[in-house]
Amino acid sequence: MYNITYYHKLIINKEITIAQNERKSIHGQWSSKVLFIFAATGSAVGLGNIWKFPWMAAENGGGAFVIVYLASVALIALPIMIAEILIGRRGKQNPVNSLRYLSKEASQVKVYEVDHDLNRTKQTKYQHHNQEDYTNWELIGWMGVISGIIILSFYSVIAGWTISYIFKSFSGLFNQVTIDGATSLFKKFTSDAERQLAWHTIFMFMTCYIVSKGVRGGLEKAIKFLIPGLFMILLILTGYVTTLSGFTEGLRYLFLPDLNKITASVVWSAMGMAFFSLSIGMGALMIYGSYLSNKFSIFEVTSIVAFADTFVAILAGIIIFPIVFTYHLDPTTAGPGLIFQTLPIAFGSMPGGETFGTLFFILLFFAAITSAISLIEPAVTLLIENFRHTRAEASLKIGFVTWLVGIGTIFSFNYWQDVTILGMNFFNLLDALTSKVLLPLGGFSMAIFVGYLVKRRTSVAELKMSQSMYTIWRVLIRYIAPVAVMVIFTNGFM
């Protein structure tokens, strides 16, 4: 008689392979591993890296923030990022449906009986080993979809600033501008709600147009051009700042941490930044994972994306802080307007400043548009799959809702600047709600879901890691990441 345990393993592994080969996303899939890496990198690398990372580092102690951020990426964000892409590729649908599919799959166990006469086993039926309510886990998907819309609503407004500043730089408006002049220019722009609304509308239209064309027709075509362009401009600007007098001081500020500055608030902010920067908990990586072919290693592509994302964030700091210190600016007082109030001074004073300034804000735009299309995609696919919308209809409806919410962020800098909720204006409230509440809670929930509910054989089959790497990841996703998120979240919240 066959060894039943071994024989059952063969059957189960064969069924997993067949099932995964047959199931594909109805929206298509990435044509190559490189394009998935480009897409996921574009999702992760965005305004969070280039606009928000330097601003958050400046407000949270420079190097102290950076060291906690790097630890958060390695020990918390990366394991959860792998889990999120695993859910997407296994489910092959929008975040809500993928979580529903995996929770149902995890709650079933196949029952076999042995036919002693024929010396073989045969499957007899499925049985639920628990009575898990699938809708509870679907809430993680809904949370991600909603988070993506909220983030894109203010993201689009900031992206509109970058488009405006491309033209300001190109026209020579920054030439010999003073500190007061740059600040006045920024405040004059943000106080003009109608102008901000125009750029916000243009950016949302471009985002919806790309997404309406689908995976191959829209996302891939945009990403092929945008991601290489983004890295090329970053490297050009990095080369330039090495010639500045404040280069060494900028590096010290960024890489020599004062450990006394590490507080609960700094740790909470750094973890939130890691989640925001890597697009964790927004549904973006889950939906991009659903387009990923089964022949590619999730661990390999995720590690490349996480490294690229962190590399860009650090490069952004290396570019911005030497410029800030060269021109004797205070990085801690500008807040969200850091790069818009400080960099024009530098670009207006340096040789070739018009060229470098224009390149920098084009870089910001590239980063913004690649992230924007990933933020809106989960909600678009939800309307297509669950509510029978065409891609064009879904893009238009979600785009309109996002555009509408974005008006609140525009008003935060003018009409509503004195209106606060919990001590924050509308923009700061949305930023705090997503990066410090929704994204960490979404990441925590995914860690619990994949670490404890998804069957071990399923994660083994999907990740295709070596035994040692899988063991490390499983310890991180089951014990280290969720505990760290909860402790940091609770202390920061309190």
Short structural description:
Mean pLDDT is 83; it is low at 1-22. By secondary structure, this protein is mainly alpha-helical. The chain contains 19 helices and 2 strands.
Defining traits:
mainly alpha, Hydantoin permease, two-stranded antiparallel ribbon, 19 helices, 2 strands, 3% strand, disordered N terminus
Strand content: under 5%
Radius of gyration, Cα only, in angstroms? 24 Å
- The total domain count is 1
Mean pLDDT: 83
CATH topology: Hydantoin permease
Instruction: List the strand order in the largest sheet.
Output: 1-2
Uncertain residue ranges: 1-22
The share of residues in helices is: over 70%
| Second-tier CATH architecture | Orthogonal Bundle
Number of helices: 19
Number of strands: 2
| CATH classification class | Mainly Alpha
What structural category arises from helix and sheet content?
Answer: mainly alpha
Biggest beta sheet attributes = 2 strands, antiparallel
Order of helices and strands: HHHHHEEHHHHHHHHHHHHHH
N- to C-terminal distance: 62 Å
Shape, principal axes of CA atoms: globular
